[in-house]
Amino acid sequence: MSKATFYHAGCPVCQDAEKNMLGFLDPKVDVEVVDFNDDSSRISEAESAGVKSVPALVLNGQPYHINYGASMEEVKNG
Amino acid sequence: MSKATFYHAGCPVCQDAEKNMLGFLDPKVDVEVVDFNDDSSRISEAESAGVKSVPALVLNGQPYHINYGASMEEVKNG
């Protein structure tokens, strides 16, 4: 089973990407959306996966940064 | 029908993204892969859609820049 985790921080770039991109994913993919505003404990997990900015999509462990909303430093200090 | 166009320029970042990301897309999506090395006439079309760097995925007209391979200026001058 393919696993996709979409990490975001509620910024407008993130919300746009979430709404549009997730609709293009295969329905068979196990998609999880993580908003750091709701669960900041997931930040370290995202950084371990190589996430440097949000929004980011981690596909089977490989991070893909999408456009640019905010750096992880901004997420942690925001 | 949803339309996805993946623009790239053959760089390693592009090839990795193409191989991994396209496998996550819904099989019902009409996916087109455009390599500027094969068809430089598509560069202006990509720029019109808002593509500023490759690899980029344009989903129903909305551009999403993925990680970072090369700027469009580098593509044009390369």
Protein described:
Chains A, B: Residues 9-64 form the Thioredoxin-like fold domain. Chains A, B: This is Thioredoxin family protein. The structure is a homodimer of 78-residue chains. With 78 residues, chain A is α+β, with helices and mostly antiparallel strands. The first copy, chain A, has a single domain (3-77), classed as Glutaredoxin (3-Layer(aba) Sandwich), CATH 3.40.30.10. The first copy, chain A, is 28% helix and 37% strand. Chain A contains three helices and four strands. Chain A has a four-stranded mixed beta sheet. Chain A is globular. The N and C termini of chain A lie far apart (34 Å).
Q: Which structural category fits the helices and strands of chain A?
A: alpha+beta
Percent strand of chain A equals 35-45%
Briefly, what CATH class of chain A?
Alpha Beta
Poorly predicted spans of chain A: none
Provide the CATH superfamily of chain A: Glutaredoxin
Strand/helix succession of chain A: EHEHEEH
What Rg of chain A do the Cα atoms give?
Answer: 11 Å
Q: Greatest interface and its residue counts?
A: A-B, 20 and 20 residues
Main-sheet strand order of chain A equals: 2-1-3-4
Main beta sheet strand tally, sense and closure of chain A: 4 strands, mixed
What is this entry, summarized?
Chains A, B: InterPro entries: Thioredoxin-like_fold, Thioredoxin-like_sf. 2 copies of one chain form a homodimer. With 78 residues, chain A is an alpha+beta fold.
